[in-house]
Amino acid sequence: MEYKTYLQSWADSYKNDLLHNIMPFWMEHGFDREHGGVYTCLDRDGTLIDTTKSVWFQGRFGFIAAFAYNNIEKNPAWLEASKSCIDFIEQHCTDADGRMYFEVKADGTPLRKRRYLFSESFAAIAMAEYALATGNRDYAERAMGVFRLIQHYAQTPGLLEPKYLPTLECQGHSLTMILINTASRIREAAEKLGLPMEDIQLLNDQIDRSLDALERYFIHPEFKALLETVGPNGEFIDTGMGRTINPGHCIETAWFILEEARYRGWDEHLKQLALTIFDWSWQWGWDEKFGGIINFRDCRNLPPQDYSQDMKFWWPQCESIIASLYAFDATGDEKYLERHQLISDWTYRFFPDKEYGEWYGYLHRDGSVAQPAKGNIFKGPFHVPRMLIKSFMLCNEILKK
Predict the structure, then answer these.
(1) At 164, is the pLDDT very low, low, confident or very high (cuts 50, 70, 90)?
(2) What CA–CA distances, in Å, run from 396 to 4, 10, 14, 189, 400?
(3) For the stretch 249-269, what's the b/e string if a residue is b when 16 or more beta carbons lie within 10 angstroms of its beta carbon?
(4) Most C-beta atoms within 10 A of its C-beta, which of 98, 248, 253, 357?
(5) With 90 as the cut, is the pLDDT of residue 132 above it?
(6) How far apart are CA 139 and CA 397, in angstroms?
(7) pLDDT recorded at residue 76
């Protein structure tokens, strides 16, 4: 493969798609100029179908708008949108205990709070990215404040409800892996804006703790898999839940680790750990019959319980595109560019809506559209624009070598 031409073509495509498709769609249809923040429950053409606001998407779009501003184009409207989302979080989405809600009404009236710490995690990276965009150290300090709250709840026994049931002790992959990305995004702002070394050390300690947990508990070589749920000490739980592999989630973890390996001068141990996770998860996830990354597998090859197990969701494809570019950057091995071409060709064949813009979120196994909405409480302006921005940056970084 003549990789320079290939990567330049994709870099141009990623930037064009972000500038002329994805960001305009959400700025026009999602950005709430009345109450602040962003709506995500949009029909195929952008029509609002539910005014309920996902709190984690206030943080997610707050991050994306600033991330695009920092790395693609200094568009003041994006910076305005980022601040609007952060303001909405701080004014309406934070409970008296400092925890954040999961859903609120259009005007910010609270609806629901859940045990998960994802609303807080995404709020923190939005604040950090906005700090980088503006040079305002105060937002980096706010991000650190939220991060300390996350750690307090995550590490204090009894503060959070059990992940599953009190009678079955277990731990989940989700928070472990997301805290790698959360800490690394805050760390960039902390380093550039001169936060105290003790803050940076706190972030590095969390990354080390998550990396150790992934390797010690969640990776199970006997299945060549990273499992979603394990016992407190990594015990294999031989139930449907305990056997679950989420290939897209694992592939996302792989590129988080590759990013950290690169930060550490391509640390060899971390690089090999990430590549192992990526290679195993690709084998579990890639659909040889129809193409694309499948939702769920059972590590014993038993029938998965989840009803959407054989569907193709938008976000695992996005994570696979990023991971394949990171893996090529790390190794120079063309098998990862071939993997990038496989997943990109399939993704761009089925997910983009050529009539109304943006991407469908939910496809059947064969690539046919399961439902055409562009967003809901779980899908919105995050995975697709993050993939476009990260992939644009990776292509250009590889080309500069």
Answers:
(1) low
(2) 10, 10, 11, 22, 6
(3) bbbbbbbbbbbbbbeeeeeee
(4) 253
(5) yes
(6) 28
(7) 98
Q: Rounded to whole angstroms, how far apart are CA atoms 261 and 75? A: 31
Q: How far is CA 367 from the centre of its chain?
A: 22
CA 359, 67, 394, 215 dihedral sign is negative
Q: Which amino acid is at 259?
A: E
Q: Helix 118-134 vs helix 76-92: angle between axes, to the nearest 10 degrees?
A: 140
- Please, are residues 28 and 46 in contact by the beta-carbon 8 Å criterion? yes
Which amino acid does the sequence have at 371?
Answer: Q
In terms of residues, how long is the chain?
A: 401
For the chain, how long is the longest CA-to-CA vector? 57
- Residue 197 burial (10 A CB sphere; 0-12, 13-18, 19+): exposed
* pLDDT digits 0-9 by tens, 186-236: 999 999 999 999 999 999 999 999 999 999 999 999 999 999 999 999 999
259's tokens: 């990013």
Please state, as a whole number, how many other Cβ atoms lie within 10 Å of the Cβ of residue 344: 18
HSE-CB for 177 with a 13 A CA cutoff: 27
Residue 371 CB neighbours (<10 A): 10
* Other beta carbons less than 10 A from residue 97's beta carbon: 10
- 3-state per-residue secondary structure call for the chain: CCHHHHHHHHHHHHHHHHHHHHHHHHHHHCECCCCCCECCCECCCCCECCCCEEHHHHHHHHHHHHHHHHHCCCCHHHHHHHHHHHHHHHHHCECCCCCECCEECCCCCEEECCCCCHHHHHHHHHHHHHHHHHCCHHHHHHHHHHHHHHHHHHHCCCCCCCCCECCECCEEHHHHHHHHHHHHHHHHHHHHCCCCHHHHHHHHHHHHHHHHHHHHHHEECCCCEECCEECCCCCCCCCCCCCEECHHHHHHHHHHHHHHHHHCCCCHHHHHHHHHHHHHHHHHHECCCCCCECCCEECCCCCCCCCCCCCEEHHHHHHHHHHHHHHHHHHCCHHHHHHHHHHHHHHHHHCECCCCCCECCEECCCCCEEECCCCCCCCCCCHHHHHHHHHHHHHHHHHHC
Pair of tokens at residue 168: 């079955």
Residue given tokens 């090999």 in the structure block: 272
